[in-house]
Design goal:
The complex is a heterodimer of chains A (about 375) and B (about 325). Chain A is of the alpha/beta class and about 375 residues long. Helices cover about 65% and strands about 10% of the residues of chain A. By secondary structure, chain B is of the alpha/beta class. The chains are: A alpha/beta (about 375), B alpha/beta (about 325).
């Protein structure tokens, strides 16, 4: 136990003395959250609007006026059929379509409640959602305004939104689970494999193997510092996401942390596995960096929706642990579902963990070859 | 003590198609055998690629041999590897230190790994460690080659091992530190430690009690350095003079010269016993060389190594 503790302390020395790497490791989640959260597509201007208004009246005209008067929007097309909407979207001429029903005025005056539809292109989910939110805001303001004038009965205008091309309606913060999936994997896998391979490269592994230390002691001691670093990063991401970006954590925080820890553990094991194959640090970096990070970014659903992938790629995503982890996190954090909805994904993650554990144990040698 | 019997280990070299390892020769089924009694410094001398590291790694329980057996103290290198790992001190070819840890942290870490403390064994490593102790807060990566070597040795000695295995400990170290290093080994040996050391520097061979000359995975001679030299049978001359580098060609062209090698600022040549020094001297003067001096000399271990190597090659050609 004393040996083990000394080993873990030594590992922390390695991390703390390499200031630059430590800064990158701890700063990465912060910058990623900030970049995804603020820099990308947060400001949407110059929104071209088409209006389908079969029965123009005071109310509909006023709504159109309000929208047009807003700095961000300009009504470019007044159209007369649903088909035109599709055409305009396909030609990329509009970003938003407002569709009034035939009897908008009647509904509003008689039943006090009228519907209208906002259609946006959400192939870029962030932009699409933001546009719809802006438009809904304008309509809500208008509703308040007419209610102030007319008194009762209060009128209610319900804007139903339709997202084209991305009907799942991925919200702008759906990237948070993706960032978690990526960062936890990169740090755990890449750093663990590098730190073990570095000992091989420098020859210290030879001395450690020829010492009374047991192989399991060496390997577990190697992973503990990165487990704790990853855990700090997990908490940083959750904190920033919820307090800075206002991402709701709707599901159980306890479950989120437990399953993230499992995912970190899986990534550490993957790092061990890589370290049994790689002989040089460069090899470990290539395997963990390009061999893992890229697939995680491209195939986990983090950047590109899995539903839109070609058949083969879609099948390929099944072997990416991050894919399942990200699905779980989306369900728990954003959709607020409970344990019963993640049993399938969780079982897959557990199975993968077992498999990688077995493989890396088989591959780890108490001698040099 | 160390006992090695018929040890063989072949593996396909990644760099060439040749098989590397020890005990590789097809005509020698027997592999490597030798034994080292307690308290002896046993040197394995040979050029790079001779198989020294492979042999040492098998003895340090880091590689498995294909066949044959080896015992360190009373333990078998395969079955009792755990016991062996407690009683050996192993210093691999590179100085296996953590460069981002300080001198003291390195030593402390290895002390803990071997379940001991610096304080407990301070007396034992004092002679060596005291030389680097003034720099104990310095990072190991910032030490000179000689100091790295001393620290690595201190780390290998911190648990008072019964057997010390040193793989080319003096490579990349300045001559003064090398001499000091061998003095330290002598002291350790006097304390009863068995020391197995390899080197590519032939001049270090005389510091060992016994040496094995190793080439292409085989021991070509095992004996005391003095006996290895005494077994040398040829007539050996040293030739000095101006313009040495071109002289070597002309010496080789002389019919009664058997072998000739450049040895720093002189050439060592073996000649037909009937040849007179004057004959060679006249020949060289004729060729236009000046300041020629030719002397009969006692061979060094390197001369012996070269002669044995030559013999081996001749043997091969005759096959």
């Amino acid at each position: 136990m004393k040996q083990f503790r000394a080993f873990v302390i030594k590992e922390f020395y390695h991390i703390f003395r390499d200031r630059r790497t430590m800064l990158i490791l701890l700063g990465m989640p912060i910058t990623q959250i900030l970049i995804f959260g603020f820099a990308i597509n947060m400001e949407v201007t110059d929104i071209a609007v088409a209006v389908l208004n079969p029965n123009p009246d005071t109310y509909t005209n006023q709504i159109i006026e309000r929208v047009n008067a807003n700095d961000y929007f300009h009504v470019d097309y007044t159209i007369h059929s649903q088909n035109e909407i599709d055409e305009l979207f396909k030609q990329n001429k509009i970003d938003l379509a407002i569709v009034f029903p035939n009897n908008f005025n009647e509904d509003l005056v008689h039943s006090g409640k009228a519907d209208l539809q906002l259609i946006s292109d959400t192939s870029d989910p962030n932009t699409g959602t933001i546009i719809v939110n802006y438009a809904s805001g304008i309509i809500a303001d208008y509703q308040k305004e007419i209610n102030n004038i007319s008194g009762n009965p209060p009128y209610q205008i319900v804007a139903t939104t339709r997202m084209l091309y991305n009907p799942e309606m991925k919200s702008s913060y759906s990237f948070v689970p993706g960032v978690m999936g990526l960062i936890l994997m990169v740090i755990s896998t890449m750093m663990t494999s590098i730190s073990i391979v570095r000992e091989k490269e420098r020859g210290t592994m030879e001395v450690l193997l020829a010492s009374p230390l047991r192989l399991s002691q060496i390997l577990i001691a190697k992973t503990i510092p990165y487990l704790s670093l990853s855990f700090i990063n997990l908490l940083t991401i959750l904190y920033l996401a919820s307090f800075l970006l206002g991402v709701p954590i709707r599901g159980s925080l306890f479950l989120i942390i437990i399953i993230s820890t499992l995912y970190i553990f899986l990534s550490l094991l993957l790092g061990l596995l890589i370290s049994t194959i790689a002989k040089k640090q460069v090899e470990a970096i290539i395997m963990a960096g390009i061999g893992l990070t890229m697939p995680v970014m491209l195939l986990s659903g983090m950047l590109f929706p899995i539903d839109n992938m070609p058949f083969l790629l879609e099948k390929l995503t099944h072997i990416i642990p991050a894919r399942w982890y990200i699905v779980i996190m989306k369900k728990l954090m954003i959709e607020g579902l409970d344990f019963t909805f993640i049993i399938k994904e969780l079982s897959i993650l557990l199975g993968m963990t077992g498999l990688i554990l077995a493989l890396s144990m088989l591959n780890s040698k108490k001698r040099l070859e | 003590m160390i006992e090695v019997k018929n040890l063989r280990k072949n593996y396909h070299s990644e760099k060439s198609d040749k098989y590397a390892g020890i005990g590789t020769k097809e005509d020698k089924e027997n592999g490597i055998s030798f034994s080292v009694p307690k308290g002896e410094v046993f040197g394995v001398i040979g050029p790079d690629g001779a198989g020294k590291t492979t042999l040492f790694r098998i003895l340090a329980t880091l590689l498995l041999a294909d066949s044959g057996e080896a015992r360190m103290s009373k333990w078998d290198v395969v079955e009792d590897y755990k016991e062996i790992r407690k009683i050996i001190g192993y210093m691999p070819g590179k100085f296996s230190l953590y460069f981002d840890l300080s001198v003291e942290e390195n030593l402390k870490f290895f002390a803990t790994v071997f379940d001991t403390t610096i304080e407990e064994n301070y007396e034992f490593i004092k002679d060596i460690y005291q030389q680097i102790e003034p720099f104990k807060t310095r990072r190991a990566g910032a030490l000179s080659g000689g100091m790295k070597q001393k620290l690595a040795l201190s780390c290998a000695l911190i648990h008072q091992p019964e057997i010390l295995i040193l793989d080319e400990p003096t490579t990349g170290v300045d001559p003064v530190s090398r001499k000091e290093f061998w003095d330290m080994l002598k002291k350790l040996k006097e304390g009863g430690m068995t020391i197995l050391v390899s080197t590519a520097y032939m001049d270090e061979a005389t510091r060992c009690d016994r040496i094995a000359l190793m080439r292409d995975g085989e021991f070509i001679a095992i004996d005391t350095p003095a006996q290895v030299i005494a077994d040398y049978e040829q007539t050996l001359w040293s030739v000095k003079g101006d313009n040495l580098s071109s002289m070597l060609e002309d010496i080789r062209a002389y019919p009664q010269v058997e072998t000739s090698f450049a040895f720093g600022d002189e050439h060592h040549i073996t000649v037909d016993p009937n040849l007179k020094k004057e004959e060679l001297s006249d020949y060289l003067t004729e060729k236009g060389y000046t300041n020629i001096s030719i002397n009969e000399i006692t061979p060094t271990v390197e001369d012996c190594f070269l002669a044995l190597t030559k013999e081996g090659e001749k043997g091969k050609e005759e096959d």
